[in-house]
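WARN no homologs supplied; continuing
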Amino acid sequence: MNGLELSRAFYEAYGAPMLHEQFPEMERLVAVGLMGSGSECLGFDDEVSRDHDFEPGFCLLLPEESLVDRRTAFLLERAYAKLPKKFMGLKRSALAPVGGARHGVLRTADFFTEKVGAPDGVLTVDQWLKLPQQALLEATGGELFRDDLGEVSVIRAALKAMPEDVRKKRLSGHLLLMAQAGQYNYLRCLKHGEPAAAQLAVNEFVKSCMEVVFLLNRTYAPYYKWSFRALRQLPRLALTAETLEYLLTTGNDEELAESKYDMIESTAADIIDELQNQGLTKAICGDLEKHAYSVNDGIEDGDVRNLNILYTV
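OK structure emitted
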């Protein structure tokens, strides 16, 4: 049983009855689920993950005070704290008076402010351009067990829909970094006798490539330690994960360098194919830099288009 399954089971066994019996008037107002930070919110937790933050628990998200006042919120916090301290052989951590960092009672506005800087999830263009994909994923990942009011679901749906101009701006910056680091600087660093710098170039190529692949899949990249697992599950370009892993985990002697550069070019070709399939580029060549500027040229908002191409990276 992973963390999401554990959370839902604990809610159904104890949380739902607690709400129904002690707070029937609040059932339609409270959103319940498991979301935020932590591998358990993505379904990526395993036996190793159980060494910390693996416990029964769920989030209770409350609307504004005009609908649920402070006293009712306090009573709900107390009721949540009194739920069984053990479930399926696992202990719950003690909660702070205002709820736990990942579980417990919190205001919807506070949750989204902490994750994306906006209580209602309505972001400015600059927020969209600068927020890490990880923050957007933490705000939209996990699972809602119930949301009768619909407020949380509406906010999460809006945050999942990255504006197309923002997606293009992010894509263009990372495509340019891929071109500079992989197609241009990798072999040049080796010719300069700088194998460490060459590996840094590989690292930059891989990091930007992963950002590009998630953007092309219209989904958000997780915290870096889960990026490869998430990459392998994507519908488009999932096989890129094996190539990127090879690039990161092999050396840079002469024979390997040739192989790695071929893989960089092959990966670039796959990315270009997908850019063309999605109608994001008008360039016809194998140079990622030209495609980066072509993607940027396709941005409709002139203010966003005219920002430095590396603005988001």
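The chain has a mean pLDDT of 92.
OK
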